[in-house]
């Protein structure tokens, strides 16, 4: 019986499941988003979020703990350098799962899992709004500036007469 055991075994033995999640986590850290099935994405979210939390504090002990899960020193280095720098102020919720529909071959539910702070569509949209407001302000400041030289020109013509 499996009373109180909430972990999804994904139809795999323990060694295969741990290796698969470690490889998926390394790919997620390297590429910042991956496409997979919904069940694997949910399992990966539970696997990778504690590792990102560990990466906020860069100590040798935390690096060794994360390395024991990921087994890839390049992924550990990128996690502690780039990812931890972006998620340093975030209290949790480092990943986002977006459902994509069904796969053509076997009709499996597909999803895209991504690191939230590295999404340029959602986060970049906010920055573009700020840029448009700056542009509109600069246009407003340009309009009075064009009128002011016209007034100066009329004063110059009066001074010459």
Q: What descriptive keywords fit this protein?
A:
3 strands; single chain; 5 helices; 161 residues; alpha+beta
Which helices and strands occur, and which strands form pairs?
Layout: H1 14-31, E1 33-37, H2 38-55, H3 60-70, H4 73-86, E2 95-102, E3 109-115, H5 120-160
Antiparallel strand pairs: 1-3, 2-3
Helix pairs in contact: 1-2, 1-4, 3-4
Describe this structure in words.
The protein is an alpha+beta fold and 161 residues long. The protein is built from five helices and three strands. Strands 1-3-2 form a three-stranded antiparallel sheet. A hairpin with a 6-residue loop joins β2 and β3. α1 packs across α2, α1 crosses α4 and α3 packs across α4.
Please give the radius of gyration in angstroms: 26 Å
Largest sheet: 3 strands, antiparallel
Number of strands: 3
Task: Give the strand line-up of the largest sheet.
Answer: 1-3-2
Average pLDDT metric: 85
Structural class: alpha+beta
Measured distance between first and last alpha carbons: 104 Å
Element order: H for helix, E for strand? HEHHHEEH
So what's the overall shape? globular
Helix content: 55-70%
Strand portion = 5-15%
Task: Please tally the helical runs, counting DSSP H or I stretches of 4 or more residues.
Answer: 5
Assembly state (oligomeric)? single chain
pLDDT under 50 segments (min length 5)?
126-130
Give me a quick take on this structure.
This protein is an alpha+beta fold. The protein is 63% helix and 12% strand.
